[in-house]
Specification:
Elements (H helix, E strand, L loop, with lengths): L2 E4 L12 E5 L4 H12 L3 E6 L2 H13 L6 E5 L5 H14 L5 E4 L17 H16 L1 H5 L5 E5 L23 H23 L5 E5 L15 H14 L3 H13 L6 E5 L2 E2 L9 H18 L1
Parallel strand pairs: 2-3, 2-5, 3-4, 5-6, 6-7, 7-8
Antiparallel strand pairs: 1-4, 8-9
Helix pairs in contact: 1-8, 3-4, 4-6, 6-9
Length: 295
Amino acid sequence: MVTHHHGGRGRDETARGRTVVVTGGSDGMGRGVVLARAARGDRVLAIGSNPTKGESLLSEATATGVGDRVEFLAADLSTIAGNQAVIDHVAATYRTVDGLVLAANRHSPRRVETSDGFESTFALYYLSRYLLGHGLMPALSAASKPVIVNIAGVGLTSGKKINWDDPQLRNRYRTIAAQLQAARANDLLGVSMAGRFGERVPYVLYHPGFTRSGASAMEQVNPLTRAVVKALASVAARSVERAIAPVHEFLDSPPTVPLTAVDRGRPVPLDLETLDPAAARRLADMTEQILTVVS
């Protein structure tokens, strides 16, 4: 079920500032982006799966004086219907979208299938980003200087290939393997999106590295693993503020090239094996096929 909450007064499309949509917007890096963009004067639509966390976000926005600029939309982005509800809501509420920040992800210790029949990590971490990027393209294309920022794992070459024979990992599911496959799928998504739309709507693949970004992505993981990650994060991870600083740069000054890839502050060469255009076309074709079957 999708619910939405408006903070303060109604949304004035003629007001100063731009419109930014953020998935994973009630936790970690996504939450940080939402509050910081609102503080800069942007209207922000935060999308998350947990209404309680959404209410917390709105309370913080109100307490810091930006409640009138933040809207929260509760949606299950692991489902096709959940993504379509977001697309429909944006079309009905905002004339244009200046920035789309894709940050929703969640680790699953065991294989979970969504109502559409997809492995949940593939559905949330990759397929949702495919659906929203395409579905919000009309609103993005109508903006003067739009950009899409996909927060994933570009620059890493672990899990280099999609499991083409078993992309839903029915035969051998492992949490990390599922994450790596979806991350590599996002690399290829960036390549195909930039190829189709990048002249008008530049696409950014951004890997922030290890970040102290809240517990949402790890809340399904066993307590021991979670404790180890938390201990490591306290020592080695970057703060949310540092991790999202480049996101603000991309939103404030969108790149002038179709595809930009940045791994922890370093440009990623676009001829990297994980950004192979042929594989990107293959994944785009496969995605269209599986969506056609479901619909």
